[in-house]
Amino acid sequence: MATGINDDKDTGPARGGRRPGPATGAGRPPRGRTSDSGRVRGAGLGQDRGMADVIVVGGGIIGLTAATRLRERGAEVTVWSAQEPAETVSAVAAAAWYPTRTGPGERILAWAAASYDQFRRDAFDRVPGVLVRETRNLERSGATGEPWWAPAARGVRYHPAPAPWTREVRFRAPLVEMGEYLPWLRERLRTAGARVLRRRVDRLEEALVEAPVVVNATGLAAGPLCGDPDVLPARGQIVLVANTGIYTSVRDEGEPGTYVHPRSRDVVLGGTWQEGDWNTTPDPATRDAILERCRALVPELAGAPIVGEKVGLRPVRRGGPRVEAEKWPGGTVVHAYGHGGAGMTLCWGCADEVAALAL
Ligand SMILES: Cc1cc2nc3c(=O)[nH]c(=O)nc-3n(C[C@H](O)[C@H](O)[C@H](O)COP(=O)(O)OP(=O)(O)OC[C@H]3O[C@@H](n4cnc5c(N)ncnc54)[C@H](O)[C@@H]3O)c2cc1C
């Protein structure tokens, strides 16, 4: 059966030479030489040897965005992914821009801001799957100050809200249909000269044999792959209903959080946050509870037919995402995992940092 990720090592379009495009480097450069603009320049050796400068292990949103930034800097990049994009946790994500259960912190804020700006540019450029939605956050905390993430959202507005809520915070947020965006990212990478292979590793050292730098973007699998005991799943179940004319995202920050994110054809209803739960089968009682909460929040949902339900295991890491370089016996591993419930929200900012660490 034909798959989107090539199972063999000789990938298609990438090998015939570079084609122009937003992710395209000027040519395969020697690592470490940069132009005044900060871009790596010149012609290097890796392509002649058939080797990559960097192997990105992981083809979810974190791996594909990191590979894009690496390629833009001119690195010879190969992505190894055990799964098709559609099979990843990233494909389950509601993928609304919002730093759920992260930060605060300067680094997280910078990542969130960079991602916000990139997705807004993507939306302007009509990249497949990238929408922008007016968003209503219904708070219960009684907070009166600016939320820590507000600068990244380029401005928020405040409105009174009836009890049990204490105020409504409004902003415009990117919302990404991952079923379209992930394959688009992958194809753009290929067009730009990267290789994207379907390959599972048992150990990251397998990649270090073939490249001096390896990006560990394996999500939940990073725990066993690099011996990190702080990685754990947070189970998320969502229900999809047909979109019968809803355009505003709504989030009730109660416990459990409830959200309604209208996409172009369906509406994502959630959610759950069940730490340590590895069960990927949708639970009917949970589905009914999600529907009830969401219909109470957005009455216009009444009668919208259910078109799907999904479960994903968010790759949580106690202490927050790990984005750092580490020397291993065979080379350098740049870790990029543990983004929990905010992988889409943080991805482009992390990708910038991964590229800077790797090259
Ligand atoms: C229900 C739900 C709703 C969510 N909503 C949002 C939201 O609204 N906004 C938001 O920002 N985030 C949201 N998230 C979180 C988001 O989905 C994650 O943070 C993000 O997908 C993590 O991306 P990742 O690339 O690290 O992991 P993944 O998508 O899991 O990708 C990991 C990659 O590593 C590969 N891999 C793993 N092991 C190996 C191996 N041994 N060898 C080779 N490859 C391997 C996999 O095949 C895959 O390609 C949500 C998640 C869920 C479940």
UniProtKB/TrEMBL annotation:
Coiled-coil boundaries: none
Reaction(s) catalysed (UniProt annotation)? a D-alpha-amino acid + O2 + H2O = a 2-oxocarboxylate + H2O2 + NH4(+)
Set out the biological process GO terms recorded for this chain's protein.
Answer: D-amino acid catabolic process
Q: Check the record and name the PROSITE patterns matching this protein.
A: DAO
InterPro entries named in the record: D-amino_acid_oxidase_CS, DAO, FAD-dep_OxRdtase
The annotated regions of Basic and acidic residues compositional bias extend over 1-12
FAD dependent oxidoreductase domain location is 53-357
Disordered: annotated span: 1-45
Q: Which SUPFAM superfamilies match?
A: FAD-linked reductases, C-terminal domain (SSF54373), Nucleotide-binding domain (SSF51971)
* Residues where D-dopa binds: 259, 314, 341
Isomerase is among the record's keywords: no
Q: What Gene Ontology molecular-function terms does this entry list?
A: D-amino-acid oxidase activity; FAD binding
Keyword Transmembrane helix found = no
Cofactor(s) for this UniProt protein: FAD
Per UniProt, the keywords (alphabetical) are:
FAD, Flavoprotein, Oxidoreductase
Where are stretches of biased composition, namely Low complexity?
Answer: 20-29
One GO cellular component term noted in the UniProt record for this chain:
cytoplasm
Q: What class of enzyme is it?
A: oxidoreductase
EC code(s) of this entry: 1.4.3.3
Can you tell me which residues bind FAD?
201, 218, 340-345
What is the protein name given in its UniProt record?
A: D-amino-acid oxidase
In its UniProt entry, the species of origin is given as Actinoplanes nipponensis
